[in-house]
Design goal:
single chain; 340 residues; alpha/beta; eight-stranded parallel sheet; two-stranded antiparallel sheet
Amino acid sequence: MDARQLNETAKAMVAGDKGLLAMDESTPTANKRFAAIGIPQNEETRRAYRDMIVTAPGLGDSLNGAILVDETIRQQTRAGVPFAKALEKVGIIPGIKVDAGAKPMAAHPNEKITQGLDGLRERLAEYVKLGARFAKWRAVITIGDGIPSEGCLEANALILALYAALCQEAGLVPIVEPEVLMDGDHTMERCAEVTEQTLHTVFAQLVAQRVLLEGMILKPNMVVPGLKCPRQNSNEEIADATVHCLLRTVPAAVPGVAFLSGGQSGELASARLSAMNARFKGRLPWGLAFSFARAIQEPAMTIWHGEDANVPAAQKALVHRARCNVAARRGEYSPAMEKQ
C-alpha cells in the first residue's frame, strides 16, 4: 500500500469546488430507467448513453471523478477510446463500483446485506489494469419498526471495512458508502440518530481493519426526513443536522465527504449541499462535495431519449446540472440557476 499516493488521489477526488459523478447504475437499474421513458434496453444503448456523458464538452470543469461499472469500464467511446482513458484525458479520475448489490439479510427481516467480497482481490487487480484509481461499495440501511438492528449495522460495517482494506492493498482509494435510506415516514431527528449510529459503527470497523483514513472518501446520506414524513424540514435545518452528525462521527483525517443524492431531486440535493457549505464554510476539517447520480443525469437522460440528434442538448443539460453542484460547493447555488 502506497499511503502517499492514496492520500493524494483521495484529496484530488474532492479538490476545489468539484465533485464526483456516479454513472454506476447496474444493468437492471439502467434498463429500468430506460424503460420508464421508452429507451431501448440493451448493451449498445447503455454504451451510447455513457458515451454521451463521457464526451460532454466541459464536463471536466465540474468533476474530479466518475464512477463506472464493470460493463462500462470495458467499453469504448464511439471514437474507439476506452471510457477510463477518455475520462482521464479531460481530467476526470475513473473509478469503479465493485459491490454485487444488497440482498435480503438472513434472520433479519426487512434488512439487507451487501455482497461481493468473493474474488474481490482479483477483480480489483484487473480494474487497476483497466484504468480505475478508486472504487465504491454501497451498504443499505433501512429505518423501520425495530430496525436497523445492531446485527445489520455491524455486518455491513465490517464488510465495508474489509472492502476498503482490499482496495487500499490494490492501490485504489475506497469510497465507503453507508446509505441510510429515505424510504418511510421517519423524522429528520430519527434519521440523524440512525446515521450517527451507522457512522460510528462503520468507522470503528475501518479502524479495526487498519484502513488508512487519509486514503478514503466517505459517501453518506444527508440527514433528511423520510419521504412520507408529514414534516419536511427546511434546507437550513437539514444542513445543520447533517453537518452536526458528521462532526460527531467522521474523523478529521478523512479528506472529504461526497454526499449521495439518495432519490432527492437535482434541485433539492444542490440546495441542501449549498446550505451546508454556506453555513459552515471554513469551519470543517473535510470538504463537503457531491457524488450524485440521478441528481445530475436525470434531465440529460430524458432529453437524450436514445436519439443521436439529441446528444448536444442532453450534454448541455448534463454539464449545467454539474455546474449547479459546483456552485453548491461554494455555497452559492440558487434555484434561479436552473433557468439559465
